Amino acid sequence: NKMKVVSVIIMMINCAYGFTFQATPDYSLEKLFNPQSSGWLGADISTSIHLANNTYVWLWGDTVYGYLEQSNGREVRNMQSMPHSSLAFVQSPPNSQPEFWFRQGDGGPDPFGVFTPQNPTDPNEIYWLVEGIMGPTTDKLVILAQTMLLSSSSFTQLGTDAIVVSNPFEHPSQWVYSTSRISTSNENLSWNSGIGYALDGYFYLIGLGNSNAYLAKISEVDMMNFNWQGVYYWSQGDQWLQNNAFSLVSLFSSDYTEGTLQYHPFLQQWFIILCQAYNGNIDIAYSASPTGPWTKETIYTIPSEYINGTTISYAGKSHPEYAANNEIVFTYSIFSCYILKIISA
Predict the structure, then answer these.
(1) pLDDT digits (tens, 9 = 90+) for 176-212
(2) What angle do CA 303, 304, 309 make, to 5 degrees?
(3) Which of 22, 47, 6 is nearest to 303 (CA)?
(4) Quick one: three-class SS letters along 92-122?
(5) Cα 229 from chain centroid?
(6) Model confidence over 54-80: pLDDT tens digits?
């Protein structure tokens, strides 16, 4: 696994839907997440969440754990294990180094990662920590996890679980958390492609199903209490229907399993970075309102060495803590079937 950082300069053409985007790799930021001599050697997903003041937590997915060693005059990674999630804490970005954290198991990191499902239907359920946000009035951390069933040869999506951490300002070894499956999520519909908070007091969730992006909203109180009957879904007839996900309206065509839904003050638009598997382009979707209409356009072409028959690029995530007011800074993950590398972010 390796990760690339890209800076996007936003140039406003007019006050309506008129923007141009100029994207270039940001090599200075890429140096911040180098592999450690021992411990964290690389990971995917790379979601960052503002906890409080100048503290940010990063959510990582499958994580390479081990140590660096010399081989034929170069530094290579000796992987000892691959837990399904890990964390990093960053104080006062953009220049500070992250502190990585693994939940410990017997003799090393817990292979299940930071969190485990509290009411699993199968002992082989695991979490990929895809998105998250702080509750502005409750001071609780909510994380959206893609819940997967692990077999010897594949992963099967089961749905989206919400993880609520009631004491996120404590050391993660002391975190108290609860988990619950979002009731309308299943093997064909997930609700972890983005989460944002609007001034109307609702969390807005981007879902994925049938190659389309969908929209739901839920109050902070209902989210923290796992009251899934309180979810409203953006539905046919351009209306919100409560506890009814049978007539969802597509925001835009999408095969993007994860992203970050954020509001950009300079753009005055909601936006999502879109990057998925063998698609050679990274797109941005943006809209003045979460309900749309949404505009989608390509902002970056992935170098061919990172998108070919054996290498995929995915998981575009925006990190506003590293961006100027007229910028978007985002990461994307790269996986090769034959060799694991990291490009730091």
Answers:
(1) 999 999 999 999 999 999 999 999 999 999 999 999 9
(2) 140
(3) 6
(4) CCCCCCCEEECCEECCEECCCCCCCCCCCCC
(5) 25
(6) 999 999 999 999 999 988 888 888 889
